[in-house]
């Protein structure tokens, strides 16, 4: 992979790439065949998948989504919001995918700074989000009880 990048070899290799509609997946990093050259991942290569391969890919996508789900939003009552999510009281993504744990949060004194931070986090890649969580909560403990 390093040689393909350093020597602009335009090689097809498997790598995690941000998908924007390829394979029917949007806004997610997934391991797929890509062309790697001096520009890094230069192109996602879509290959025809069998039904079994499509199903396996979907399992991987669902696992990535489950891992990365974080309650990204602004609230003035985190305990209430976390309670709603952990008890599946709110329809939507967290209810559908069974997201119940609070593994990270940030407190802000000003609403504007909280909203700015929310917009920043929504643009972050997977590794940055994982690092953010693991810096403060390396064991991925449920932080809900710590709110009281």
Automatic annotation (TrEMBL):
Residues 73-129 form the GIY-YIG domain. This is Uncharacterized protein. It holds the Pfam family Ldh_1_C. Gene3D superfamilies: GIY-YIG endonuclease (3.40.1440.10), Lactate dehydrogenase/glycoside hydrolase, family 4, C-terminal (3.90.110.10). It comes from the Eukaryota. Residues 2-66 form the Lactate/malate dehydrogenase C-terminal domain. The lineage of its organism: Eukaryota, Metazoa, Ecdysozoa, Nematoda, Chromadorea. InterPro entries: GIY-YIG_endonuc, GIY-YIG_endonuc_sf, Lactate/malate_DH_C, Lactate_DH/Glyco_Ohase_4_C, UPF0213_domain. One of its GO terms (molecular function) is oxidoreductase activity, acting on the CH-OH group of donors, NAD or NADP as acceptor. It comes from Diploscapter pachys.
